[in-house]
Automatic annotation (TrEMBL):
Cofactor dependence: pyridoxal 5'-phosphate
The organism's taxonomic lineage, starting at the top: Eukaryota, Sar, Rhizaria, Retaria, Foraminifera
Sorted UniProt keywords: Transferase
Organism (species): Reticulomyxa filosa
Keyword Membrane (UniProt): no
GO molecular function: pyridoxal phosphate binding; serine C-palmitoyltransferase activity
Name this polypeptide is given: Aminotransferase class I/classII large domain-containing protein
PANTHER family for the chain: CLASS II AMINOTRANSFERASE/8-AMINO-7-OXONONANOATE SYNTHASE (PTHR13693), LD36009P (PTHR13693:SF3)
Keyword Transferase attached: yes
Length: 105
């Protein structure tokens, strides 16, 4: 039988994150994250990007029509100071989903 349970270090990390989120500083960070994510969604939509996902989520999926455009788009983000973690997933034929993951310290 196989198990896909979390390792003890992963569980410890999640529990520590919950402890931080419960503090006033953690709550402020969460509100700032939501505000920044929603602002990014709004700006991308205004510039004609196909933005998916839910409001108030830190994950902002953006559809890039052709897979070859993804590296250039990622480079442009980095040039502008947007720190993102690129993930791709097949969405429709000839379309990929480009995910932004935000990390705030």
């Amino acid at each position: 039988m196989f198990s896909s349970g979390l390792s003890p270090p992963c569980v410890a990390q999640v529990l520590a994150a919950f402890q931080v989120i419960k503090t006033d500083t953690g709550k402020q960070r969460m509100q700032r994250l939501i505000k920044n994510s929603n602002l990014l969604r709004q700006v991308l939509r205004e510039r004609g990007f196909h933005v998916m996902g839910d409001e108030d989520s830190a994950v902002v999926p953006v559809i890039i029509g052709h897979p070859a455009k993804m590296p250039a788009f990622s480079r442009k983000c980095l040039e502008k100071g947007v720190k993102q973690n690129l993930r791709s997933q097949q969405y429709k034929q000839s379309q990929k989903k480009f995910f932004f993951f935000f990390f705030f310290g």
